[in-house]
Amino acid sequence: MLYLCTVGGRTIYLKIDHNAGIPVSAQIAEQITYQVVSGTLAPGAKIPSVRGLASDLSLNPTTVARVYQQLESDGIIYTQRGRGTFIAPHRTAYTSAEQQRRLAPLIRNLVVEAGKLGLDFDTLNRLINEEITAITDDTSAHQNDAPGAADTNQGDEA
Amino acid sequence: MNIIEAQKLVRYYSGVRGVSKLDLTVPQGSVMGLLGTNGSGKTTAIKLILGQLVPNEGAVTLWGEDPLDLKPERRSRIAYVADEVELPGWMKLQEGMTLYASYYPQWDAAEADALIKRFDLRMDRPFGTLSKGQKRRFFLMLAVAQQPELLILDEPAGGLDAVVRRSFLDLLMELRNKREVTMLISSHILSDVERVIDRVAFVNEGRTTLEDDLDLIKERVKRICVSKDKDASLMLERFSIESQHDIAGVTQFNVTDFSPDKMDGIDGTVEHLNLEEIFLAYNGDEALEAGQQL
After folding, report:
1. What ipTM goes with this model?
2. Chain A contacts of B214, Cβ < 8 Å?
3. What is the β-pairing status of strands B31-35 and B199-204?
């Protein structure tokens, strides 16, 4: 199911598969994180209240509260008492060594999985580069936006 | 606040246990799925909660009170749609609705009209001429127009085709989100209720075998496949295992306390399980033995 919601003046789509084995809260946290990394959601953008988002997504507020807890502990969002919840500024909380330590197991899994499927590593490299290009294209597209601009740039590049 | 709390309920039917050690907690505003195979004790559990049956042991409360002591105003805010309900065959739907509405001072006639249109109910027809699906839609319309705070549905989707089931579920989601109706839904069609519920209780042979938020259950219950003895013994050491199967040299473990860091040093693949697969991991063997259908 595809849902529309407004975050920081921008309309974003969230795709939720209720019949998947991945918890709904994890599905949403992952998509919001992607939108932040790609720049669709800029630092400082206000995100809806737990109740507001729960109603937009037809979910129980406890599920959305779990999403926000997860995002907050990951440093993606922060809450200011009485003002609301916002996208956090880009983080440099981790040293480069720590960043690499956290990524290492994921990269190892990726390489093992590719090997298992018999994919040659040049192709794997190409796929990774394509993914990086996709997310940075998004980022640069959004950096040109005026702050608070409506969501009109979708498909511009195409 | 918990709307329903049931602790260690036991109820015998002519010497046989219909329900044994059933626990259930339904917080305000949540939608609880009471899930089990046919004959697992779901309907008995609902009757105990409503006070239609008295438990032999254990206790149940609604809004913190014994169901038998509920004040009439409170009781009128509980709507119950049973699996099999009938009106006299000659009675017209309009007459049935007038009768039902007379019991509920808070009856919402505008809501009833809207649902009659939405469900395409012909109110001048006698009850006896309705199909099973039409009867269910009629009773759900009554339950919603009653403006309940607690809605209990026993097998709401049973015998309905996919289109009607979908419109039914959409209505339930509206009720949950716009009016914060607390719901208890018993069902054995798991993929349907998976969209609506946020809490789950599995009932097996009258017992609650698992009860928690659906999201937390999906986080913790996983299937892990390993092929080496070394990894299999690490699995047994680190995880609590609900069931396991050996297939062609691969051992599948259904674990109930998964966390990614516990996989350190284990060479295995982790599979996510949806509600139906989780249910089978808990109840599969028994259900197959009993020759029951999911």
Report:
1. 0.73
2. 23-24
3. parallel
